[in-house]
Amino acid sequence: MNHLNDLKELINQGDVDTAIERINHLLRGDTTEQGRDTLFYLLGNAYRKKGDWKRALDNYQRATDINPHSPAAQARAMAMDILEFFNKDMYNQ
Residue 52 belongs to what domain range? Predict the structure, then answer.
């Protein structure tokens, strides 16, 4: 569990490349389904922070496929809202 806090801290500090590398290493290992959904959620957060929306959404979806009650479901919905948002008034200027 401590490694999850370390990963969250890396992402929050902006060291997302290191976080992504460590998460991928953990995913290649033997983790429980519960642990895997959390790792995919964190991987989605890391890619979102990098601006790679496709990979973020893909990883949020993988986490949600494992656990429909994962916070990744809400994160994916929020990311989709951001990507689908546009301001019609800006087109008329």
Answer: 2-85
Please report whether residue 91 resides in a domain.
no
Q: Is 40 helix (H, G, I), strand (E, B) or coil?
A: helix
85 or 13: which carries more pLDDT confidence? Answer: 13
Q: What is the DSSP letter of 7?
A: H
DSSP code of 45?
A: H
Residue 93 has pLDDT above 70, yes or no: no
Question: At 17, which amino acid appears?
Answer: D
What is the C-alpha radius of gyration for the chain, rounded to an integer number of angstroms? 15
Joined together, the tokens standing for residue 8 give 């969250």
How many CB atoms within 10 Å of residue 84? Answer: 7
| CA separation, residue 36 to residues 25, 30, 42, 47, 89 (Å) | 12, 9, 10, 16, 43
Mean pLDDT for the chain overall: 88
Q: What's 77's domain CATH number?
A: 1.25.40.10
pLDDT, tens digit (0-9, with 9 covering 90-100), for 71-82 = 999 999 999 888
